[in-house]
Amino acid sequence: MRIRGAVLDRIGDTSPFDESRPLRVVDLDLDEPGPTEVLVEIEAAGVCHSDLSVVDGNRPRPVPMLLGHEAAGLVRAVGSEVSDLPLGTRVVMTFLPRCGDCAGCRTDGMAPCQPGSVANGAGVLLAGGSRLHDGGVEIAHHLGVSGFATHAVVDRRSLVVVDEDVPADVAAVLGCAVLTGGGAVINVAKPRPGSSVAVVGLGGVGLAAAITALAHDGVRVIGIDMLEHKLAAARELGVHETYTPQEAVDQGVKADAVIEAVGRGAVFASALALTAPGGRTITVGLPTPQETVEISPLALVAEGRSIVGSYLGSAVPSRDIPKFIDLWRAGKLPVEKLISSSIALDEINRAMDLLASGAELRQIIRFGDEA
Q1: Predicted confidence (pLDDT) per residue in 25-34, tens digit
Q2: CB within 8 A of 309, min separation 6: which ones?
Q3: Which positions ≥6 away from 209 have C-beta within 8 Å?
């Protein structure tokens, strides 16, 4: 079938991207779903730093690639081996499929699925190969999703069913921002009454971590960011204390769990310094491969501190997304407040500029509005 999507032809273009225009919105051919795959009509897709990191070259991926990895939509066709998804079902796409059999899948979310990670790195689906074509040119898939398009073919194991009462934009944000930031809270920080959680970097993922921590009774939540409008957004969401990084250092701020949601070596070092004795530094940001940090093992041993890497919030999406939906329904997880604006697909290059500048939290492409 013919679809419309945003294809990245080259990586490493300089900003402003609205001028260099690394992404082109074009008509493409999409194959029918294979036996274990599903055709989804996309309703909403979020613009995330993991998309930007491919555009600017910080996370090299095969190109040409149809970007987008945070999305939700409606099931329109299924492969011969998919029997549990009625047509019209709303689904959340998650950016790391889980095969269910490998060593990573046996860690209950703490380690990534090995075949899923290999497929993502190669720009193919879990069953192998691409379903996207531009004339005779094969187009790579982004993290098994390729959500910046009107439709996508994805593996069944990349999908989680949600009820109709969950709006499409909320469902989309659950698939990356909430699963990554919120997952790091519920699966790694595991805050208890009387404990504290600090979040360094208050973008979409960081604020998702903050509101998830706030959903826990008796937990003090601290927000840290360079930008005042992001600190203000955190305060509006109910975060108890907010600081710039320098203010946090000057005032001796410490927390039992510190979630680093930026993906830069210097920010990770500051998160480590903010971690209280006996606490955990949890890193969810994705720095460039060249970034390094010096760490004193003595400080870790003497103070009983630990460092934990958390990819996709150490989550099992089929287990954790329903937990977040329950919190949302109870009014404890205001996911819609993470959405700062809605855009059209044709505005995708400008959206990357706004994301890079820190001007936006979560921009949502609403495909139904374009019809």
Answers
A1: 999 999 999 9
A2: 282, 283
A3: 181, 182, 184, 185, 197, 199, 259, 261, 284
pLDDT for the residue 289: 84
Residue 369 CA from chain centroid, whole number: 23
Query: What confidence score (pLDDT) does residue 369 get?
Result: 55
As a whole number of angstroms, the distance between CA 371 and CA 368 comes to 5
CA 354 to centroid of chain Cα atoms: 17
Write the CB contacts of 332 (distance below 8 Å, at least 6 apart in sequence).
Answer: 214, 215
Region 184-199: what's the mean pLDDT? 98
Q: How far is CA 202 from the centre of its chain?
A: 13
Per-residue pLDDT tens for 31-79?
A: 999 999 999 999 999 999 999 999 999 888 999 999 999 999 999 999 9
Give pTM, 2 decimals: 0.95
Question: What span, in angstroms and rounded, lies between the C-alpha atoms of 112 and 12?
Answer: 27
DSSP string across 7-70: EE--S-PPSPHHHH--EEEEEEEEPPP-TTEEEEEEEEEEE-HHHHHHHTTSS---SSEE---E
Residue 347: HSE in the Cβ half-sphere, 13 Å Cα cutoff: 16
Verify cis geometry, omega within 30 degrees of 0, for the bond prior to 64.
yes
Q: Which domains does the chain have, with CATH numbers?
A: 2-161+334-370 (3.90.180.10), 178-313 (3.40.50.720)
pLDDT tens column, 96-135: 999 999 999 999 999 999 999 999 999 999 999 999 999 9
- Report CA dihedral (87, 93, 99, 103) to the nearest 10 degrees: -160
Return the residue matching tokens 């208050």: 202
C-alpha 180/C-alpha 282 separation (Å) is 11
User: What kind and span of H or E run contains 329?
Assistant: helix 317-329
Does position 371 have pLDDT exceeding 70, yes or no?
no
Closest CA to 92 of 142, 46, 36, 28: 46
